[in-house]
Specification:
The chain has 277 residues and is an alpha/beta fold. The protein is 35% helix and 27% strand.
Amino acid sequence: MKKRLVISLAVLLAGTLSVFAGGGAVWAAGEKTIVVGVNSENPPWIFAKDGKMTGFEADLLEAFAKRAGYKIEYKSAPFATVLTGVQSGQWEVAMSSIWIKKERAEVMDFADPYYDAQIGLMVRKDGGITSFSQMKGKVFGADTGSANESWLLEAKKKYGPYEIKSYDYWVDAALDLETGRIDGVVVDAPIALYYIKEHPKSGLIMPLYIDDYHFAQALAFKKGSPLRDEFNKVQNQMKKDGTLLEIHRKWFGADPTKDSSVINVVPPYLPNQKPKM
């Protein structure tokens, strides 16, 4: 039932939210409209509910749009396509808990980060995995083209051999984990913790965090887009006036750390290279 619901939402978004054949910022009836590519199954960051987009990132972007006088048009796609779409100009903004990496920064422009991210390994409570050394011979999932998948590929030398299964939508990996088709999912820590909170009967836990993977999370813009600087200016205002803090409290039920990019103006940084606050 859960899987059918996920598929239905994806179809709904493809049919009703993907309005424009082109991409970028367009004009409609005298109003400025920004086309934004998202992975619509990425709670708590961005996801579909009752035919509308919601989540931390939706609140952030729509607060920007309200202040700057834009309308937002969402296009739903698998994560890897969200990234290639902003490169090719299908949309001017890509948003789905995207982490700043060197190879991405070469082909798209990043705004200042709004979050400092980490990844971990989600497993079943009864699965018996309590350390990375127990990964050998098992099957693990991650979303295609993500840093999570990259870590699984890199960690094979240390913790393998094991099988990697790639998914267009990470929630499908979580469902396969619940049913025992795979043994674990490498995923963004806040996404996993939110999923576990919202699905207390799933039997899933996140006991292991990957300490050498710390990323700046930010919106990505088409290379050379002037919209990036306009967004930065408004986002930094929202950090200073407490708007972003309230969004964080709404979705995570707690305050961020004092040095967090949620409340501090931090320039884009590469993995594990966050400037000291």
